[in-house]
Amino acid sequence: MTRDPMPAPDLFNTPEVRALRADLALALRAAAHHALSEGVCNHFSVVLPGEGDRFLINPRGLHWSEVHADDIVMIDSTGAVLAGRHAVEPTAMFIHGAVHRIARQAVVLHTHMPCATALACTSARALDTTLSQNAMRFHGRVAVDAHYNGLALDATEGVRIARAMQGADVVFLGNHGVVVCGGRIDYAYDDLYYLERACQVEVLARSTGLKLEPIDPALAAHVAAQSNGERMQSELFLESLRRALA
After folding, report:
1. pTM for the structure as a whole
2. What share of the chain is helix, strand, coil (3-state, %, to 5)?
């Protein structure tokens, strides 16, 4: 016997989903605080536990700095609003829905943050994960979708991005921005923050015109294992932001 799905408004107000709504809103406010947002564009989303075709996402038209738990919207895989008091930008699910569905990622954070996007506009298309300690945490975790094809106004864009990931949880979108994924909101946001910091260091280092000194890829892989093997700092970071940005 299969269970009947919980009605959307009831699911939206369970303690577990209310906590997810609060964390997603906090991540959005944090991104605004850290200058990772862009106007009222881009999106953060998270799959509801046990509900592979239902997602929480930020609403259309609100600056990320003003988003709180009650502003978060629940949608299905077609982008239809199931619960919440705001509309959703129609193209929001073209990227997010595909990455959730095809790449099987629980949390999907898409931004045009400046330094990561700058590197996505270079011939390298992405971060060099052998340059700085912050960059090394992403060694072996980065994919590139170099085929910019205009605004993501249809499902094919999201499908291509999701397929380009090939198991990676960070993808640089050529001439566009980045997508950072994770199994939890705190881990994904921590990665988003440190990805931009690593990209900023690389942009600054390259701007000096001096010869760069990357480290051996084997050592970068070791640092990545060290950094990703213990994520308490990610949890503590989000909790510190909760206190600072309440």
Report:
1. 0.95
2. 45, 15, 40
For residue 69, the tally of other CB atoms under 10 A from its CB is: 16
SS in 3 state form for 130-156?
Answer: CCCHHHHCCCCCEEEECCCCCCCCCHH
Contact 84, 73 (CB under 8 A): yes
SS3 7: coil
150 close to 135: Cβ distance less than 8 angstroms = no
Reference 48, options 80, 78, 13; nearest CA is 13
Q: Tens of pLDDT along 132-171?
A: 999 999 999 999 999 898 787 777 888 989 999 999 999 9
Question: In the prediction, which pLDDT does 152 show?
Answer: 76
Question: Which residues, including other chains, have CB under 8 Å from residue 232's CB and lie 6 or more apart?
Answer: none
